[in-house]
């Protein structure tokens, strides 16, 4: 899958999860994730990066905020587990999942 298709897939997934959420944190919805991705692309331009890992990290980094009432301000701690589940569901390359999870822990 090319990076544009992956971007569209992650954005659509974000919209679906956000719309299905009972108590999402409004400031961390799909448009937040898209803006993070757009900024990351600018910062990484011309550098050697794994664009698929970067896209996944950008679109999934605050994914637990969609269940804010349940997880509260600790939603960042939940992100690696939730991202792993989502990435496995969409058949993301297994060897890249751990790198994405590690990126969340550095936030």
Concise account of the structure shown:
It comes from Candidatus Falkowbacteria bacterium CG10_big_fil_rev_8_21_14_0_10_43_10. The chain has 107 residues and is mainly alpha-helical.
Q: Biggest β-sheet: count, sense, barrel?
A: none
**Helix and strand sequence:** HHHHHH
| Uncertain parts | none
Measured by DSSP, the beta-strand proportion falls in: under 5%
Estimated structural class: mainly alpha
Overall number of structural domains:
1
Quaternary state of this entry equals: single chain
- Taken from the alpha-carbon principal axes, the silhouette is globular
Radius of gyration: 13 Å
Distance between the termini: 27 Å
> What is the overall number of helices?
6
- How many beta strands in the DSSP annotation? 0
Average pLDDT score: 88
Protein name: HD domain-containing protein
Pfam family, one: HD
Structure commentary:
- The chain has 107 residues and is mainly α.
- It has one domain (3-105).
- It is built from 6 helices and no strands.
- Helix 2 runs antiparallel to helix 3 (51-60), helix 3 crosses helix 6 (94-105) and helix 5 (75-89) runs antiparallel to helix 6.
- The longest helix has 18 residues, at 3-20.
- The model has no long low-confidence stretch (mean pLDDT 88).
What features would you highlight for this structure?
107 residues; mainly alpha; globular; HD domain-containing protein; HD/PDEase_dom
């Amino acid at each position: 899958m090319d990076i544009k298709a992956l971007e569209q897939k992650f954005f659509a997934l974000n919209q679906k999860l956000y719309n299905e959420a009972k108590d999402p944190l409004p400031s961390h919805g799909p448009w937040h994730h898209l803006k993070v991705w757009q900024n990351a692309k600018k910062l990484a331009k011309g550098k050697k990066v794994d664009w698929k890992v970067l896209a996944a990290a950008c679109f999934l980094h605050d994914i637990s905020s969609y269940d804010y009432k349940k997880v509260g301000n600790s939603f960042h701690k939940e992100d690696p587990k939730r991202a792993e589940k989502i990435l496995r569901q969409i058949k993301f390359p297994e060897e890249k999942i751990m790198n994405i999870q590690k990126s969340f822990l550095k936030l």
